[in-house]
Design goal:
Length: 685
Amino acid sequence: MEQQNYINRELSWLEFNQRVLEEVSYSGNPLFERLNFAAIVSSNLDEFFMIRVASVKDQILAGHDRRDPSGLNAEELMEKIMARAHEMVEEQYQKYNYSLKKALKKEKILISKEKDLKPEQWSFVEDYFNKNIFPVLTPMVVDSGRPFPLVLNKSLNIALLVEDKEDPNNIYFATVQVPSVLSRLVEIPSKGDSRTFLLLEDIIKYKLDRIFAGYHILEKACYRITRNADLSIDEEGAEDLLEVILESLRQRKWGAVIRLETEKKVDSRILERLLDELEIGEREVFRIPGPLDLNFLKEIASLKGYESLRYPPFEPMEHIALQNQESLFEAIREKDILLHHPYYSFAPVIEFVKWAAEDPRVLAIKQTLYRVSGNSPIIGALAQAAENGKQVTVMVEIKARFDERNNIQWAKRLETAGCHVIYGFPGLKTHCKVLLVVRREDDGIKRYVHLGTGNYNEITARLYTDLGLFTSNPYFGADASNLFNTISGLSKPMDMNRFVVAPFELRKKMLKLIHREQKNAQQGKEGKIIAKMNSLVDKEIIDALYEASRAGVVIQLIVRGICCLRPGIPGVSENISVISIVGRFLEHSRIYYFYNDGNENIYLSSADMMERNLDRRIEVMFPIDDGTIRNSLKQILDITLSDTEKARKLYADGTYKKVPKRGKEKISSQEVFATLGNTGIDRQE
């Protein structure tokens, strides 16, 4: 019966993607933003299959029959995953076919088919095909001398049955890849103010007779595969971690096939051949009632001239504590500063590194980097600092999934500039967000620290909600130095003053904080926990929360994505509530609040409550000592918990539903934060 107390991780993730899918039909979202949400659902599913479903399939193939905390073994879980994923894709395409396309047509944006084209448009298509598409196509016929080709992960392809014109008894299977180097959307001339587009694969399908000269085209259908992209890295046996990662990246393109997407009306002979060659079963097939891979909707959403179909422009504000300051160092010396992104600009973080690079008093800069942007100004500033003779140490996590190649490139650039680059910690990922600047001042050496819940990435800082703290607190500075010495020296961390570091102490500390609230409640005192995170998966943490709930502790959880805890189970979790918010910005900040008999403790962290964060990553949780900032964080939690527009409440059966309003004020927490600005939250006067 205990197994009924937990929700399976993969099934919980699918429900998160369902909440993203709900935004596609939410009338309060502008049309182009709805297109973006539909595309995000597709890209989310791609990664889910490549990593999570691939892992489940590996367990099945290995004969792994152990049950997870929810009571499912790998085979049972796969059945549930496939059933739920098929439902989700059906709903996604219903929204595309019957809502999004109609809404686009109202805006005079047409995604056309062959039968809709006028003669003058056909002339354009013919010319475009001959000049732009035909030269880059590679048709491939499969026969005894030409084996079935290796199909690239996530590539769009067209499968065919072709008949030799000279010998009708010879029927072949053929395939052609839709070129990814060309735009998937091809705009064709239209009259008036309307805009007409054809999909690249449709143009190719119309011209297959040109591509396969000498053959009759009997059947044709688009298909797309998803491969296992979960890298397997033997770090312990690796002499050169960089080379191991690069080799794994090469292998990622050709992992086992996990999913096959085809057109809904695919010919049975084509499907049978694909299943045989790709070595998958019928349940891994998704017959799509529309264009495969809706990521192309992002291209439409990026069209110029449709500002009314997007969210109103949003410009992050400058924090009042940083206005009219001669230097960031002076402002941080004066008091701790909390930045709530994207509502407050990420620019001060970039400026902090740039100033440190140029300031003759700065002796050293040390920073962790997990995911950075394609043209990161922070990378440029760190390289400049090294060229200016400063000691620069950078921990670049080259095992950050799907950012491996990008991070390796940046690491090499930093090394060339003279930075001391650390590529990783054996057996662990470095996920903490720490920036340390050491400066010689009139009264001696002073350390300035920035700590964050999100990555040092100026692009995602405009899209994700995160928190960052600037401080010159000497205890934080000493802890930051200890942490970097641990990373560079591969030693167990020295005793920390204020930091709580995973995988060494964070699990133990979190359990201690939860048990303290439980003990207070058992003594008749008020017990309260509020936690905001991306995912709650770890069984030991969940069990501790259940015990605290049984003791009477009121627990309010804000979990954007995966939540394996079941709230509202009588006698187990009836004092626990869970909400999730999916909105314009991706909720990414981690805040942990404990009432502590009135002596409130609030921590920020880079870590979610997952086994990987607690046991297999270097993470940092740090307390907020400043009373004003603590009040700001309490306000953030209060406003988030009061959301009635974007919040979805998790029920004991694992379903999410809109938060009941029942006369409550209409509140969208993200809109509130966007308008508070310098008149409210984080004023810190």
